[in-house]
Each structure stands twice: as C-alpha cells, then as structure tokens.
Amino acid sequence: MPQFEQLSIVGVGLLGGSIALAARERRVAGTIVGIGRSPAKLANLVSQGMLDRVATSLADGVATADLVIVATPVDLVAETVADVRKSAPASCLITDVGSTKHDIVAQVVASSMGSHGQFVGSHPLAGDHRSGAEFSRANLFVGRTVVVTPDASSDAEAVSQICEFWKALGARVVEMSPAEHDQAVALTSHLPHAVASALASATPAEVRQLVATGWSDTTRVAAGDAALWRQIFLANRPQVLAALDQFNQHLALLRAAIEAGDGAKLEQLLAEGKRIRDAVGN
C-alpha cells in the first residue's frame, strides 16, 4: 500500500521529476500528478511513465492530493503554497524543495490563518548543474541529505510524515530550524557557488586552453542556472554576505602568507584546509 494515494508536484523540473520517478519506483505514491504551464511538455512526461496525470490548473491538480510538493523557484514558493491551500483537502501535507527556508516559512505562517493543509519546509541537498525534467533520475536522493525545517507552529505528525516521505525516497533526513538551515547552507552551498562563479569569471580567455581537472572540478557548479542562483542569493542575502565575509578573511590570510613568503604559515593554512576536506570525505 502506497504511503500517499495522490502525490501532486508543482513544477516538474529536475527535482520535481526525480521525486516523481523515485516515488513511482519505490511505490510511495499511488497516483502522481504533475502541475505546470506547458501541456505538451507535461504530456510527454506522462508518455515516458514519469507522471500518471497532468494539470495546468493548480486547483485541479491538488484537489484530491494527499501530499503536494512545491518545486518552483524559491521566490514563488510561499505564494504557491498559499494557492495550494485554497484548493487542497484539509488533511493534505505540503512541502517544498527550496534551498532557502527562513523567509519561505515565515511567509507561509503569516498567510496560513484558516488555510487547508499542513506545510513543513524541506530542502533536499541533491541536484545537478543541469536543470529540466529530462535530467531527472530515480536515485537522485539515495544517500543524500534532506533538511526538514519545522517551526514552532508545525504539527508534529505532519513533520514526522514529511520526514518519512524523504526517507522512503532513500534520503537521510536532518531536522533544523529555518534560520539554522539558512546559515548553514550559506556556507556549504551558496558560498561555493559564488566562489566557483567568481573563479570562472576571473579566468581570461587566453588561458582557458590550459584548464585541467582542478579548475573544472572547482568551477563545475558555476554552470548552474544563473536566474535560479540570483533568486537564491537574494533570498538568503544576509547569510550569504556573512559567508562571503568569512571566506574573504581566510583568503586574506592565504594572500598575506604568500606575499610575505611565509612558507610555514602558508603550509599551516593549506594543511588546515586539507584536514577539513579529508574529514568531510566524498
């Protein structure tokens, strides 16, 4: 018996499509409904077996849903959740996949008076520098971390069910407050993207023929969608700025050691970076 009779996904891109594939493969949902603005694109996903049914009307797509996943860009999540709650059943669970959480959760809570459905924020730390449903895969969440971000108003049973949903897709679940989440991912996700983008931009055309694995590995995430990352940086602006300040302090130490020709200090700084990287693994 599936965990949910109907799973509705608003925005069937890489993450939404991967959720659909994983939920089908693992028999987590009985019926999977995709909601979007392109009937032709959605119909193609039905023919591929990713979706059972499609809807271009949000109200139609969530009217009988047990679980709704909002996989829109971060600047549309709160608004979309509010719209879902106008048409979803009172018992419906709602979560999202946004990579920022504090503002989303705060906006949802502020607009939730008398609304249907229980919202609990989520952020799967999984993805690809490529976007689009065509790059979806059923194993995207296997062994990956999903952060679930309840707040003081969250229903304990709803939080538990959302956690179980992600575990059923193969993920490892960590619970954090929205503010703790945003501070952490500013350092572990948003800062790396900013640094990768800056490094790629700082590489002159005349030397690009010499780039090798070090440059390619370090700048890989810079190939991500620029409009998406603009939204993420601005949505988490205070924490991203704090992360950049922290990075600049470490970069300044490296620069000072190199400028002074202080080999001992330079090796100490490099060894500390290696120690932390080795401890993380992967």
Features:
282 residues; alpha/beta; Rossmann fold; 6-phosphogluconate dehydrogenase C-terminal fold; 2 domains; six-stranded parallel sheet; three-stranded mixed sheet; 9 strands
Task: Provide a quick synopsis of the model.
This protein is an alpha/beta fold and 282 residues long. The protein folds into two domains: 4-176, NAD(P)-binding Rossmann-like Domain (Rossmann fold), CATH 3.40.50; 181-280, 6-phosphogluconate dehydrogenase C-terminal fold (Orthogonal Bundle). The chain has eleven helices and nine strands.
CATH architecture of the largest domain: 3-Layer(aba) Sandwich
Q: Under the CATH scheme, which class of the largest domain?
A: Alpha Beta
Q: What would the principal axes of the Cα set say about the shape?
A: elongated
Rg value: 21 Å
Give the helix level as a range of percent.
40-55%
* CATH topology annotation of the largest domain: Rossmann fold
SS content category? alpha/beta
Could you give the count of β-strands?
9
Summarize the helix and strand pattern as letters.
EHEHEHEHEHEEEHEHHHHH
Low-confidence parts, pLDDT < 50 over ≥5 residues? none
How many domains make up the coordinates?
2
